[in-house]
Design brief:
Layout (H helix, E strand, L loop, with lengths): L18 H6 L17 E14 L2 E12 L2 E5 L21 E3 L3 E8 L2 E4 L10 E6 L4 E5 L5 H16 L8 H8 L16 H10 L6 E4 L15 E4 L4 H6 L7 E5 L5 E6 L7 H18 L7 E5 H4 L3 H13 L6 H8 L2 H8 L1 H20 L4 E6 L5 H13 L6 H13 L5 H4 L13 H15 L8 H9 L14 H6 L2 E3 L5 E3 L14 H4 L50 H11 L1 H4 L7 H11 L22 H5 L12 H26 L39 H8 L1 H6 L7 H4 L2
Parallel strand pairs: 12-14, 13-14
Antiparallel strand pairs: 1-2, 1-8, 2-3, 3-4, 5-6, 5-7, 7-8, 9-10, 11-12, 15-16
InterPro entries: MTMR12-like_C, MTMR12_PTP, Myotubularin, Myotubularin-like_Pase_dom, PH-like_dom_sf, Prot-tyrosine_phosphatase-like
Keywords: Cytoplasm, Sarcoplasmic reticulum
Pfam family, one: Myotub-related
């Protein structure tokens, strides 16, 4: 029997697999069962599902079984049971054909070649299923040859378990925590900031303990459920002040600069208050400001981020439009948008938001470094843009935050313990899209700009950042699945499936061994990291690095980027038009930095970079780039054969492993050690199969770029016409999704 919605008289799917091939891949011959994690339950499944890709007008793919569990959606074919040709960068939790329920963005059904968004109860079942993921993967499934009852079960199950609102304790996080053995090695160097000692150690590390103190006022969450158990405030702030307005209006310490200036944050009072309440709150704030503006404290600068940066709604809107450029489900759509790539990219406003956020971080760094002024960041809850700016400033000014353990500790301090609402902002429970905003992704995008501009300054790679962004949607770690420390602590209690009572033991995402084996973890570490030498006071001045900067450009408008476009075979003529003239809008915008800030910016960029000192991102014009690895890694048409930064890093890793192997052999020969043991051979990577998609995918088949009509080339060659008018905007929300 044909699947739901299929019509024999009007076939909408053409199979390019011969009947012989179909017979060979019959599921009866080799039953493939899903690999389930502890606590994972199989909910529904469907056989004879065709997973395909659309290339050059044809479909190619494979038959298999589509299953849905309380953790993921998974496609199983014959290759799923084989360990042959496993990728070197294999995730042990989420396979290449696995989609966690939290990673599902939208689901579309195809009815007579028309796409329709699937939500809630379905009256009619589609003949094709398209799943768009938050990590930008796109899965196409044909259900034409699946039994009708199986189609109903699998489609209803996938839509229900991935798109409908759910209770917090229905997350797989709790099922896994109650069933999985807690056998982590405990050698994680990340500071979790869950104890008073962690905060005191951080104060001592930054020399902030002279003017600031860690307080226990919120033990038992008696001040506020939004604040962490322990935090740091100026010494002059009394416990009564903290208690008065549930922590609002209190400057909370983030970090201290080497010169004593500090970065602080504060949750603002609600704007809509009656006059008497407003007057009392204003008097309270004036008293606080006067107290922390007196010696020994530096001058204080207030920065209301709600008025100086885009709103969360603007950020969400920009990212929603931006991600549509990469949710490509067929090569035809890819090439159709390729011609208008730069204008479509500019119209999303996402890169402009990144530039504004980086510019704000530079402003704060200038106040701390040059003006020796304390900066107080103000926001309604101090848990969104405050987290972004405070984290960026520390990455730019504190080399410890550019190590892997330091960066992870920073995320713990400012985001996890700091109270960023990951549950709401990522919409993990599908309760309210109004609260959804990619704030943490915005930070990672900004940090990536620094990583790609100054690679030797970071101990981690862009692959680390990409994997970290993917981990937002893996519900076996508690790191990104709570709104606050209070919410996590109050939901820790529960009963284990092993009949023993006790609190849940949640995993932390910082234990990378849970997801990757040691060989895969090597891709997270930067082999070219300029490690900070051990402190030697007698030689501190002469030991300062004076590397010449690479990839730097003069801070003038004249030179466009010499790199080719993100997609293959972009014409030099088109790049000249877009980069040379369109990007001028960024450089000549009215949002230019003030003179003092521009002088600070220009002065720093005119000197050699100290990779362990202050880092300032380049933010002029085309310097702000698209995070290609994260956004283009699933698009075969966008790959660079044998190229890309990670492919280059892989070759460097090969060389380093070979050198280490030779060093071991030389040491053994030098010591004249007689041993019959066989030396381990370095993990060689076949460079012929590498591309810019590596390590997430090896070299893939590419579709051929179609010849452009003569009229299109005529339009592109008309330089004046291209510059005067904006390219026609293509609304991808309707066609692509």
């Amino acid at each position: 029997m044909l699947g739901g919605g299929a019509r024999a008289a009007k076939p909408s799917f053409v199979s390019y697999i011969s009947p012989e091939e179909i017979h060979i891949k019959e599921p009866i011959e080799k039953e493939v069962n899903p690999r389930l994690l502890p606590g994972e339950l199989l909910l529904c499944e469907a056989s004879t599902v065709y997973k395909y890709m659309q290339e050059d007008g044809s479909n190619r793919g494979t038959y298999g079984k589509l299953v849905c569990t309380n953790f993921k959606i998974s496609f199983l074919d014959d290759d799923s049971a084989s360990d042959d040709n496993e990728p070197q960068f294999k995730n042990k939790i989420v396979g290449e054909n696995d989609i966690t329920l939290q990673c599902v963005d939208q689901i579309y059904g195809v009815y007579d070649e028309k796409k329709k968004l699937l939500t809630g109860q379905l009256r009619k079942y589609p003949e094709k299923l398209i799943i768009y993921c938050k990590d930008l993967r796109v899965f196409n499934f044909c259900l034409r040859y699946t039994k009708e009852e199986e189609v109903k079960r699998i489609v209803s199950g996938i839509v229900h378990h991935s798109q409908t609102p759910k209770l917090l304790k229905r997350l797989f996080l709790f099922s896994y925590a109650s069933a999985a053995p807690n056998n982590t090695d405990g050698r994680n160097q990340t500071v979790m900031f869950e104890t008073l000692e962690d905060w005191r150690d951080e104060l001592e590390r930054t020399k902030g303990n002279v003017k600031y103190k860690a307080v226990t006022t919120n033990e038992g969450y008696r001040v506020s459920e939004k604040l962490p158990l322990y935090f740091v405030v100026p010494l002059c702030i009394s416990e009564e002040s903290i208690l008065k307005y549930e922590g609002r209006g209190i400057p909370i310490w983030c970090w201290s600069c080497h010169n004593g200036a500090a970065l602080l944050k504060m949750s603002a009072f609600p704007k809509e208050q009656d006059d008497s309440t407003s007057q009392m709150q204003k008097a309270f704030l004036d008293g606080i400001y006067k107290t922390i503006s007196k010696p020994p404290y530096e001058l204080l600068k207030l920065d209301d981020l709600s008025s100086s940066l885009p709103s969360l709604q603007d950020i969400q809107t920009a990212y929603t439009r931006f991600k549509q450029l990469f949710l490509i489900d067929n090569s035809t759509d890819f090439w159709a948008t390729d011609v208008k790539w730069f204008s479509l990219l500019e119209s999303t406003n996402w890169l402009e938001i990144i530039r504004r956020v980086l510019k704000k971080a530079i402003e704060v760094a200038e106040c701390l470094e040059i003006q020796h002024t304390n900066v107080l960041l103000i926001e309604e809850t101090a848990t969104d843009l405050c987290c972004v700016i405070s984290s960026l400033v520390q990455v730019m000014m504190d080399s410890y935050s550019r190590t892997k353990s330091g960066f992870q500790s920073l995320i713990q301090k400012e985001w996890v313990i700091g109270g960023h609402g990951f549950l709401d902002r990522c919409n993990h429970l599908h309760k309210s899209e109004k609260e959804e905003a990619p704030v943490f992704l915005l930070l990672l995008n900004c940090v990536w700009q620094l990583v790609q501009q100054y690679p030797p300054a970071f101990e981690f790679t862009e692959t680390y950042l990409t994997v970290l962004s993917d981990s937002l949607y893996v519900p076996i770690f508690s790191t990104f699945f709570f709104n606050s420390q209070h919410q996590r602590d109050t939901n820790k209690s529960g009963e284990s499936l092993k009949t023993q009572s006790g609190p849940f033991r949640f995993l932390t995402v910082w234990d990378w061994a849970v997801q990757f084996d040691p060989k895969a973890q090597a891709f997270l570490n930067n082999p070219l990291y300029a490690e900070k030498p051990k402190p030697d006071k007698s030689q501190r001045k002469t030991a300062r690095f004076k590397h010449q900067r690479q990839l730097s450009l003069p801070l003038t408008q004249a030179k466009p980027s010499t790199k080719r476009g993100f997609f293959r075979e972009e014409t030099d003529h088109l790049i000249k038009n877009i980069l040379g003239k369109r990007i001028g809008k960024f450089i000549n915008s009215s949002d230019e930095p003030p003179n003092s800030l521009r002088e600070f910016y220009d002065s720093w960029h005119s000197k050699p970079v100290d990779y362990h000192g202050l880092l300032l991102p380049r933010i002029d014009g085309p310097e702000i780039k698209v995070w290609a690895q994260r956004y283009l890694r699933w698009i075969p048409e966008a790959q660079l054969h044998g190229g890309g930064t990670i492919a280059t890093a892989a070759k460097i890793l090969d060389l380093m492993e070979e050198v280490q192997s030779l060093q071991v052999k030389m040491d053994e020969e030098h010591s004249q050690a007689v041993s019959g043991a066989v030396h381990s051979v370095p993990m060689r990577r076949n460079s012929a199969r590498l591309s810019s998609l590596f390590p997430f995918a090896l070299l893939q088949r590419q579709s051929v770029k179609p010849a452009l009509p003569t009229s299109t080339w005529k339009d592109l060659e008309d330089e004046d016409d291209l510059v005067k008018r904006d390219d026609e905007f293509v609304d991808l929300s309707g066609d692509m999704l």
